[in-house]
């Protein structure tokens, strides 16, 4: 404990060995001094519930500590999601498995246990645009944060820009970068942009460092056979990257229709229905005899 903080506690009469008190405000100050901020905020309400429900001292203490722990965990998750740069919204629960039958629900639920992250493995989500690859990667990243793992989410174009900025960093400094140090690195939309030799080499540096040190999830519209073309046409470099990524990997090949096209079709059908109903109503009114309202 810092000396300044100790002096403040002494001046407030909280230290040393504060006498028992019935003063709720004094109790609240002691909780704040112990950095139990959420318990301090909920103290009054919990005391009222304790009296109403005739809790004993152990029950009251359990509820007070449970409140503090739950609020701390909520705050940790919110902060971790913000730092990760994960998109908000996609979860495993709101993924439409019925629309995308090529995705096995049981397989996604197994991935949601995060064992593959603990094992520093790779997850490749491959398929055409709009089939839910980014949704699943984001959902699994969110689940990882909820379970205490650190996550770094990057779209490929932003990732390449960051790698270029860090190109001259020494290995000692590079390893502290978030995309190196996080438990899970998610690279979204690999394959939409062809990499030059320098970019491919920088990408290899990340994959090589994270190999058996941290998990990687990659969404891509390219099959594995097309990766050399994306990686500056370098067969040797592509083989080295794939060798590390696929050594312990789960590959999900997602087929089917695009969610975006489905949503567009639904919206167009809705507009057509509204237009048709409006035309019918107009014709009906036009057919009414004069004098009728």
Instruction: Identify the CATH architecture of the domain at 105-253.
Output: 3-Layer(aba) Sandwich
The order of strands across the largest sheet is 2-3-4-1-5
Rounded to the nearest angstrom, the radius of gyration is 28 Å
Give the count of helical stretches: 14
* CATH class descriptor of the domain at 105-253: Alpha Beta
Average residue pLDDT: 88
CATH topology of the domain at 105-253: Rossmann fold
How can the largest sheet be summarized? 5 strands, parallel
Please bin the fraction of helical residues.
Answer: 55-70%
Task: Look at the helices and sheets and give the structural class.
Answer: alpha/beta
Instruction: Give the low-pLDDT segments.
Output: none
Order of helical and strand elements: HHHHHHEHEHHHEHEHHEH
CATH homology superfamily of the domain at 105-253: P-loop containing nucleotide triphosphate hydrolases
Q: Terminal Cα separation, in Å? A: 83 Å
Strand content: 5-15%
Shape: extended
**DSSP summary, beta strand count:** 5
């Amino acid at each position: 404990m810092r000396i300044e903080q100790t002096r403040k506690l002494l001046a407030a009469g909280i230290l040393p060995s504060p006498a028992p008190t019935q003063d709720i405000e004094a109790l609240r100050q002691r909780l704040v001094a112990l950095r139990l901020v959420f318990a301090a905020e909920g103290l009054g309400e919990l005391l009222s519930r304790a009296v109403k429900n005739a809790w004993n001292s152990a029950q009251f203490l359990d509820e007070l500590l449970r409140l503090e722990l739950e609020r701390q965990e909520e705050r940790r998750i919110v902060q971790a999601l913000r730092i990760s740069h994960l998109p908000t919204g996609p979860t495993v629960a709101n993924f439409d498995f019925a629309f995308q039958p090529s995705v096995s629900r049981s397989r996604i639920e197994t991935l949601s246990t995060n064992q593959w992250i603990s094992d520093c493995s790779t997850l490749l989500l491959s398929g055409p645009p709009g089939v839910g690859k980014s949704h699943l990667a984001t959902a699994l990243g969110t689940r990882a944060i909820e379970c205490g793992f650190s996550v770094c989410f990057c779209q490929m174009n932003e990732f390449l820009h960051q790698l270029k900025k860090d190109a001259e960093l020494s290995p000692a400094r590079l390893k502290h970068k978030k995309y190196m140090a996080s438990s899970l690195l998610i690279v979204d939309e690999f394959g939409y942009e062809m990499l030059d030799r320098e970019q491919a080499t920088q990408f290899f540096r990340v994959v090589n460092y994270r190999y058996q040190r941290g998990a990687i999830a990659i969404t891509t519209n390219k099959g594995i056979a097309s990766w050399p073309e994306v990686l500056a046409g370098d067969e040797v470099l592509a083989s080295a990257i794939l060798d590390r990524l696929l050594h312990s990997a789960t590959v999900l090949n997602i087929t089917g229709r695009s969610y975006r096209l489905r949503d567009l079709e639904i919206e167009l059908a809705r507009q057509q229905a509204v237009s048709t109903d409006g035309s019918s109503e107009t014709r009906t009114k036009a057919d009414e005899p004069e004098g009728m309202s």
